[in-house]
Write a structure and sequence with these properties.
Structural class: alpha/beta
Number of helices: 21
Helix content: 25-40%
Shape: globular
Strand order of the largest sheet: 15-14-16-17-19-18-23
Length: 646
């Protein structure tokens, strides 16, 4: 522990100078001089917030990476503005990155923050309702100008008083000016120097939570080593200047240490959902022996999967950035026909555009994984905000009787496992699969134990190697109703394929009514039999009780935290998070039967609840939905669950 002299505590006000600059005046008092130590904390939430160009995503990522390397459990929530480039200094243009880190496994990024870093008045205003009553607020004093206050639509020249923040722990260092002073001899132009102020702010936060600087310094040098070493050194210098400033001025009354979490032994790294998804596909390609192909069109928030796969030429991955969504999926279908493990990625509106080609893949019975990273809709909607509103589209959004498997991941690290699982189902059952993630878990990150590939099962597609006696029948099926996967170019395995209905064995075009009925029901039953190869549904808590909380996909962390709190209070509440949506696990009805009430929580207006009502008419499903472009908070879930119990 570090002993130090007690700090000076500041209280701040604002006044307008003749030139329109807001001057910060500070009164202060000295605490009783004594030696103090770092205070232990079980967890903390810090939120970096500023204009889109202020580098808040990078600052937040580096803080979370450093915490993960220290051994903390972490969960992050990058909160991007919905506009590509909102006017600078406006509330609409505020970009945020929230990190929840702790001495235990962290399930969610936190309802509200213990520390808010606000790089301008708009960031302060945008986050007024996201800070705890005891929070520390760090504001860039250099940004508090009359012009910036007007842009953020403040009515007075005192944002602290206007927002009612007088009782908070507030520090107002002039981060912009001090960054310029620290880098005066860097040789960089003024614009480049000011861009380093996010590292100055990060240094302050590293001091507050006793984080080491080495990882960030090494990252910055690596990032800019070839392009501009001077920029790298300037950022490193700004980082250290921020740390030293906080230390030398005793900026905070207290400093904190968050101990490492008691994680299972292994090698860990921080990983985002999109990166984990890409790596899960690479693992599935290795385990199946089939080369990986991804044909996609860039769309927020799914683009990073394509970008990450494009880096893996060393693993034989082939990627195509197509001219549109339809071309993306069609190239993937062609790659599947040619024997590749085929993937295409998209988000809401893109899934709509892919629907016709998805029908082709179902009719042709080809293995294909479509990743839908859900966002707020409809249409362009809220492109950077999370939602779970594509479920009905994934289940039913195609013409005709067109069933396919639907799988959903529950956390950033989970995306690796369920990408692998979706690919395994697609190739072993020779069918399209939709993998649902969302912007919350795709952009968010958590500590991930890097698995051993020996722990993952082999993937054994039913590849046709040679024609049987009597000739090859492309739609002859095994006991799981799965047809064989024959690649072009093999003598004796020639066959027809396409979007027209085909004969139930030969694959030739057929318009026979009885054959069509047989093929429709066979394709549906093939998907239903996937239930034999997926795990049974697990329940967190007792298998009988007063309330079962049901969720699916990326809501797991918040739901689990809320349920744990009610269980600790002695309530008979359990939690079931679904990852296999179509087909559902075989014991689903048994799980539901053990509870007096069932509430389905999802980031839409009740789509999964409606689906469950169709499947299980003997149960009553209550619905609790949220469509605000934001994840659930644990507090609102607790309130809802108590109301249902009481």
């Amino acid at each position: 522990m570090n002993a130090r002299v007690a700090p000076i505590n500041f209280f701040c006000g604002f006044r307008l100078s003749i030139r329109g600059k807001i001057d910060i005046f500070a009164g202060y008092y000295l605490n009783k001089m004594n030696n103090t130590e770092l205070k232990e904390r079980n967890s903390a939430v810090i939120r970096f917030s500023g204009d889109s160009g202020d580098g808040m995503q990078l600052a937040g990522t580096l803080f979370s990476d450093t915490s993960a390397l220290k051994g903390n459990g972490i969960s992050t929530f990058p909160d991007y503005p919905a506009e590509i480039r909102a006017p600078q200094g406006t509330v609409a243009g505020v970009s945020g990155f929230q990190v929840h880190f702790g001495a235990h496994r962290i399930l969610h990024p936190g309802d509200a923050c213990d520390v808010l870093v606000a790089m301008n008045p708009a960031a302060l205003k945008a986050n007024r309702n996201k800070i705890k009553k005891s929070a520390t607020i760090i504001i860039d004093g250099g940004s508090i100008t009359e012009e910036n206050l007007k842009r953020a639509q403040f009515e007075t020249l005192d944002p602290i008083a206007e927002l009612g923040l007088g009782e908070y722990n507030i520090a107002v260092p002039d981060i912009t000016a001090m960054t310029q002073a620290a880098l005066a001899d860097s040789g960089l132009d003024r614009k480049s120097i000011i861009k380093c102020k996010n590292m100055f702010a990060l240094g302050i936060c590293f001091y507050l939570f006793d984080r080491p600087e080495e990882h960030t310094a090494n990252f910055l040098r690596s990032k800019f080593a070839k392009k501009n070493p001077a920029v790298a050194e300037a950022n490193v210098k700004a980082l250290r200047a921020g740390y030293d400033y906080a230390a030398n001025t005793h900026l905070f009354a207290d400093r904190y240490d968050v101990a490492p979490a008691p994680l299972e032994k292994g090698v860990y790294r921080s990983i985002s959902g999109n990166v984990a998804t890409a790596w899960g596909f690479c693992a599935a390609s290795e385990k199946s022996g089939r080369p990986l192909f991804c044909g996609s069109y860039p769309i927020t928030p799914a683009t990073v999967i394509l970008e990450e796969l494009a880096k893996r030429k060393d693993l034989g991955v082939k990627t195509v950035q197509a001219e549109d969504e339809i071309a993306g999926i069609c190239t993937a279908i062609g790659a599947a026909y040619a024997g590749n493990m085929a993937v295409t990625t998209t988000s809401g509106p893109g899934l709509s555009l892919k629907s016709e080609a998805l029908g082709l893949a179902v009719m042709a019975e080809l293995p294909l994984v479509v990743v839908d990273v859900q966002r707020g809709g409809p249409s362009t909607g809220l492109p950077t905000k999370p939602e779970q509103s594509d479920l009905m589209q994934a289940l039913y959004g195609r013409n005709g009787e067109c069933p396919l498997a639907v799988v959903a991941a529950s956390s950033p690290a989970d995306c690796f496992h369920y990408a692998f699982s979706a690919a395994k189902i697609a190739m072993e059952h020779v069918t399209p699969v939709i993998l649902l993630t969302d912007g919350f878990i795709a952009n968010g990150s958590e500590a991930w134990k890097i698995p051993s590939m020996s722990d993952y099962p082999a993937i054994v597609p039913p590849v046709a190697e040679s024609a049987p006696e009597g000739g090859y029948m492309p739609y002859a099926r095994n006991g799981k109703l799965v047809r064989s996967w024959a690649f072009p170019g093999k003598a004796g395995l020639e066959h027809r394929i396409g979007g027209l209905e085909k004969h139930s064995l030969r694959g030739t075009i057929s318009h026979d009514p009885e054959n069509h009925k047989l093929m429709v029901r066979t394709r549906a039953e093939k998907v239903a039999r996937i239930a034999d190869d997926i795990p049974l549904q697990e329940v967190f808590g007792d298998k009988e009780g007063d309330l079962l909380v049901v969720g699916w996909g990326g809501t797991r962390g918040h739901l689990r935290a809320a349920v744990e709190s009610l269980q600790a209070a002695g309530r008979r509440v359990s939690h079931a998070q679904f990852n296999y949506i179509n087909p559902l696990p075989k014991n689903t009805a048994e799980v539901f039967g053990g509870f007096r009430r069932i509430v389905v929580c999802e980031l839409n207006d009740g789509q999964f609840a409606s689906y469950l009502r169709q499947q299980f008419r003997e149960f009553e499903f209550l619905s609790f939905g949220k469509v605000e472009g934001q994840p659930f908070t644990v507090a609102e879930l607790q309130e809802k669950f108590y109301s249902l119990l009481d």
